[in-house]
Specification:
The complex is a heterodimer of chains A (235) and B (147). By secondary structure, chain A is α+β, with helices and mostly antiparallel strands. Chain A has two domains: 6-72, Orthogonal Bundle (Arc Repressor Mutant, subunit A); 82-229, no CATH class. Chain A has helices at residues 36-41, 46-59, 80-94, 105-114, 121-129, 144-153, 176-187, 191-201, 216-229; strands at residues 6-10, 13-18, 34-35, 62-66, 69-72, 97-100, 118-120, 137-141, 157-159, 164-168. In chain A, helix 3 packs across helix 7, helix 5 (121-129) packs across helix 7 and helix 8 (191-201) packs across helix 9 (216-229). Chain B has helices at residues 6-12, 31-36, 69-74, 91-101, 104-117, 123-126, 132-145; strands spanning 2-3, 21-24, 40-41, 49-50, 56-60, 63-64, 67-68, 77-81, 84-88. The radius of gyration of chain B is 16 Å and the shape is globular. In chain B, the strands form three sheets. Chain B has a five-stranded mixed sheet. Chain B has a two-stranded antiparallel ribbon with strand order 6-7. Chain B has one domain (2-145): Beta Polymerase, domain 2. In chain B, a hairpin with a 7-residue loop joins strand 3 and strand 4. Chain B is built from seven helices and nine strands; from the N terminus they run E-H-E-H-E-E-E-E-E-H-E-E-H-H-H-H. The chains are: A alpha+beta (235), B alpha+beta (147). Chains A and B meet through helix 9 of A and strand 3, helix 5 and helix 7 of B.
Chain lengths: 235, 147
């Protein structure tokens, strides 16, 4: 099947082209961290490897952690035709800003009282599924700078360890559960389990044409966890 | 009895976890005793059990991701949890188990463990259970996340 490039152009972020050639990066496999040489092995040249990495970083799939080393979100391994749906979430996550005060649950409580916005990922997924304990409060806000000022007025500091994460409101929010589902897929890692749980528990709220692809072992794990919660037992 | 799953991950690196419990135990599983204690057999894939509070428990009696249970028990780390003392798998065993498991959640856990504890791994202890290739790969990950 011939796949065409995805041209994505939405309000509040620049137009972006995701070309199917980028899917070559999917053959790198899922690991905690990668070296540029690993990308080099699956591309024609070192220059191509750097160009692909640059495109992946631009889209929000990859993040450089130090010279030569980078991480990849597991959402990269989703099918190419889902990428356009993930892009608003990835772009928002790319601009995430972390804030902390006491660096515990109190920060989350205070931020929820203080900020106006739409909660997604950990805490919203927990409300929807009760699958995994939440850790970070991700909150979509209309004006990130204003939200940052509000948090600073409440003595929060900005850094990398805080549990309150403000992200710009990018993309479509008509179906809130669908958006949380896509955010979970885009964020990847353990949030992928949240996405699976949302699909199981809130299947009727999701667009049947926009679905992630998950490993059977992850689906099995989530099914078992949800089953245990509901108290299903053998005889 | 040693905690080897989410509970152990949360000890070394505060992170998201599911409610299930994974335990390595020395003796073979005594099903009658578990039933007397209020556990119920779970219909899932691995012969798991459910506590009376609906928490799924998996017991490991031989190995965890090919790490022998006797090694896990011998090198476990003792913790105080309120009034109680419990044991969790040592960092080296946990990292290797996550590396070998390789599922999406395990890769995410391994990344967290390496970010927060990668600099404190006792590689000589890990050498008792890991291959040279595994150690080289894990050292490379640790180096990448070192500040």
């Amino acid at each position: 099947m011939v796949e065409t490039s995805l041209y994505i152009c939405q309000h509040a972020y620049p137009c972006m082209t995701l070309r199917p050639e980028l899917t070559i990066a999917q053959t790198i496999g899922e690991k905690p961290v990668y070296h540029i040489n690993e990308l080099r092995k699956i591309t024609d040249s070192r220059a191509t490897a750097y160009r692909i990495l640059s495109k992946l970083r631009e889209a929000g799939f990859a993040e450089q952690i130090k010279e030569g080393y980078f991480t990849i979100r597991s959402s990269l391994f989703q099918p190419f035709n889902l990428w356009s749906n993930l892009l608003p979430s990835l772009q928002a996550l790319k601009q995430a800003r972390f804030f902390g005060l006491s660096y515990n649950e109190n920060d989350v409580r205070l931020a929820r009282q203080t900020l106006k916005g739409i909660i997604t990922l950990d805490y919203r997924a927990y409300e929807l599924t009760k699958l995994q304990s939440p850790r970070l409060l991700f909150i979509y806000v209309d004006d990130v700078d204003q939200a940052a000022r509000t948090l600073r007025e409440h003595k929060f500091s900005e850094g990398t360890q805080g549990r309150v994460v403000i992200i710009p409101r990018i993309g479509v929010f008509r179906n809130e559960i669908q958006r949380v589902y896509l955010d979970c897929i885009a964020y990847g890692g353990r949030s992928l389990l949240d996405a699976i749980a949302i699909e199981i528990v809130h299947n009727e709220s999701l667009d049947s044409h926009i679905r992630g692809i998950f490993k059977a072992e992850d689906v099995l794990k989530v099914r078992e966890e949800l089953g245990a919660q509901s108290g299903t037992r053998s005889d | 009895m040693v905690f080897v799953g989410a509970f152990a991950v949360n000890h070394y690196s505060k992170y998201r976890t599911t409610r299930d419990i994974d335990l390595a135990i020395a003796a073979p599983l005594n099903e009658q005793k578990l039933t007397r204690l209020g556990y119920t057999k779970w219909q899932g894939s691995k012969g798991s059990w459910l506590t009376s509070r609906g928490i799924k428990v998996d017991f490991y009696t031989r190995d965890v991701e090919a790490i022998p249970v006797p090694w896990i028990l011998k090198n476990a780390v003792q913790l105080r949890l309120g009034e109680k003392e419990i044991k969790v798998i040592c960092l080296e065993g946990l990292i290797l188990a996550k590396h070998r498991a390789g599922r999406t959640a395990d890769v995410a856990d391994l990344r967290q463990l390496m970010i927060h504890r990668g600099g404190t791994v006792a590689w000589n202890l890990m050498a008792e259970i890991a291959t040279d290739y595994e150690i080289a790969e894990l050292q490379r990950i640790s180096k990448a996340f070192a500040s």
